[in-house]
Structures are given as structure tokens and as C-alpha cells.
Design a protein that fits this description.
Strand order of the largest sheet: 4-7-2-1-10-13-12
Largest sheet: 7 strands, mixed
CATH architecture of the largest domain: Sandwich
CATH topology of the largest domain: Immunoglobulin-like
Order of helices and strands: HEEEEEEEEEEEEEE
Number of helices: 1
Distance between the termini: 106 Å
Helix content: 10-25%
Number of domains: 2
Number of strands: 14
């Protein structure tokens, strides 16, 4: 009888331990799920952006953007939101070239799972590659133009470098003064290299004609 009572006590104790452990695991999962839902989608501030944009004849732009951001909040950040709904992302890689996971949001843009948590004051660097269909608008037969004021939402000075490669055979018709023109192996490259003040913007406009439309 004593042995039977002892076995009963052991079984009850193990059952209680398993129940407590299961409750703990479930509790942790619920907390993690809650954090994932409540964490801000975009909280990092860009401090450097290096963009290369290859323009196809139809106005589609192939982009590669190397981004460095800092956490200027008082909390640790695990995710970041890339808000351009028109950007079709092929891949996002960390500073070592390892792919990072991302999902498209129902309301537009993409949610990126950062490769490591970014504490307050910390930095992170990653590369985004993708395309924007018909980003360059056709105003008339063979005439294309691009124009926007870029506002990156930076909290401190940000170094912006952009290289726009016009289609082969294009003739540049107009550009903003802050854009430099360079010819590289017969292809026109438009370059921007500026420091953007906090919450500042930069106008980027240019217009060109394709060689096939000159006749």
C-alpha cells in the first residue's frame, strides 16, 4: 500500500509539472504573438542610402538599394516596414549576403524580419533588390520623365547616393541642378550625392528621349 501511494504521488507530481510547463510554453507563445502584433512596423531612421536604378526602354526600373538605418527609439526593434506599394521585391539580404524574410502587407508595402534585434541606438544594414513597373512616365511619343520629391523620414542627417542609368541611346533633355550627368561607355548616368537634413527632402527630376523616337 505504501508503494502504491508513493507511485500515485509521483504520477500526480509529474502531471502537475507537465501542466505547469505546458502553461508556461503557451504563455510565452502568446506573449511573443502579442509583441509581433503590437510592435511598430516602421521605427528605424535611415542614415545612409545607396541606390542604383537601371531604366528599361519601357520605363520599368530595376533597383538595388543598400540601406543603413539606426534605431532612434527607446525600444528594441525586430521588424521594419518598406512602404512602397509599387516596389516588387525580389530579395532582401543582410550585410553578409544572407537572405532575410519578408512578407507583403495587405495595405501595401512589405514587412521585413530583421536578421537581428536592433536595440535603441543600434544600427542595421541590408540590401533590397526589385523592380518598379513603369516608374518612368511617357509624356509623348519617345519622351520620358521622372519627377518626385524624396522624403525618407530620417531623424538625423542622411547620406543619399543615387545612380540612374538611362536606356542605351537615350538623349537627356532636362534635369535638376542637383543631379550630375556622366557618360559611361555611351550610356548616360545621372548621379545624386547629397546630405539630407532631418525630415528634409530632395527634388529629383529629369527628362529624356529615346533614340528610336528621334526620326
Amino acid at each position: 500500500m505504501a508503494w502504491t501511494k508513493a507511485k500515485t504521488a509521483v504520477v500526480v507530481g509529474v502531471a502537475a509539472l507537465l501542466a505547469a510547463t505546458s502553461t508556461t510554453v503557451i504563455g510565452v507563445k502568446l506573449i511573443q504573438a502579442h509583441r509581433a502584433k503590437t510592435e511598430p512596423l516602421a521605427a528605424l531612421s535611415p542614415i545612409m542610402m545607396n541606390v542604383t536604378a537601371d531604366i528599361a526602354p519601357d520605363g520599368t526600373v530595376r533597383l538595388q538599394a543598400i540601406v543603413e538605418e539606426t534605431n532612434s527609439t527607446g525600444r528594441t526593434i525586430h521588424t521594419e516596414r518598406i512602404g512602397d506599394a509599387n516596389l516588387d521585391i525580389d530579395q532582401i539580404t543582410d550585410e553578409f549576403g544572407k537572405p532575410m524574410k519578408f512578407i507583403q502587407q495587405p495595405g501595401g508595402g512589405h514587412l521585413v524580419n530583421l536578421d537581428h534585434a536592433v536595440p535603441s541606438g543600434g544600427t542595421i544594414s541590408y540590401t533590397v533588390e526589385g523592380t518598379v513597373p513603369h516608374m518612368i512616365k511617357s509624356t509623348s511619343a519617345g519622351i520620358y520623365e521622372f519627377g518626385e520629391t524624396q522624403n525618407q523620414g530620417n531623424d538625423s542627417d542622411m547620406h543619399l547616393i543615387e545612380v540612374w542609368r538611362l536606356p542605351t541611346g537615350a538623349t537627356l533633355l532636362a534635369k535638376d541642378p542637383n543631379i550630375d550627368e556622366i557618360t559611361n561607355d555611351g550610356q548616360i548616368e545621372l548621379r545624386i550625392d547629397k546630405i539630407i537634413a532631418p525630415k528634409g527632402g530632395l527634388a529629383a527630376r529629369f527628362r529624356y528621349r529615346l533614340a528610336a523616337a528621334t526620326n
